[in-house]
Design brief:
31% strand, 5-stranded mixed beta sheet, 5 strands, alpha/beta
Length: 120
C-alpha cells in the first residue's frame, strides 16, 4: 500500500508532516526518505500527524524513535511531536516501553504549542 506524505511549513524552521496509509517495512524506506527531506529543509521542530495511519511496522517505529531522539539531542529539548496515534500503535509503543520517548498530542495546534512554536 502507498504511503502519502504532505509537508506544511508553519515557520521557516517548523514543519508539519501528514502521513497516511499503512507503514509496512517497504514503506518504511519511503519514511526514511521523508526524514531525510525534513533534515534537508533544516527544520528544527517537526510535527508528525499520524491520524490516518492505522499500522506502523517495527521498522517504521524504529525510525520514529531514532529520529525523535536525534532531534531532541540536537536541539536540547523536545523537537518532535506526534499527533493522532491510533490506539493500536499506542499500545505497541506502551508494551515496548517506548511511549515516554515521544511528545504525544491530540491536535497539531497543541503539538506546535508544546514545541514552543508561536501561534500564527
Amino acid at each position: 500500500m502507498q504511503v502519502d506524505t504532505d509537508f506544511r511549513n508553519v515557520t521557516p524552521k517548523t514543519v508539519v508532516v501528514t502521513i497516511e496509509g499503512y507503514i509496512q517495512t517497504k514503506e518504511a524506506r519511503q519514511l526514511q526518505r521523508t526524514l531525510k527531506e525534513i533534515d534537508e529543509r533544516q527544520a528544527k521542530r517537526v510535527v508528525f500527524d499520524l491520524s490516518s495511519v492505522a499500522y506502523a511496522s517495527s521498522a517504521a517505529l524504529g525510525l520514529f524513535v531514532t529520529y525523535s531522539n536525534r532531534k531532541k539531542e540536537e536541539e536540547g529539548t523536545n523537537a518532535v511531536a506526534i499527533v493522532g496515534l491510533s490506539r493500536n500503535i499506542m499500545n505497541v509503543l506502551r508494551t515496548l516501553g517506548l511511549l515516554p520517548l515521544f511528545l504525544l498530542c491530540e491536535t497539531v495546534d497543541e503539538a506546535l504549542k508544546e514545541l514552543g512554536v508561536p501561534a500564527s
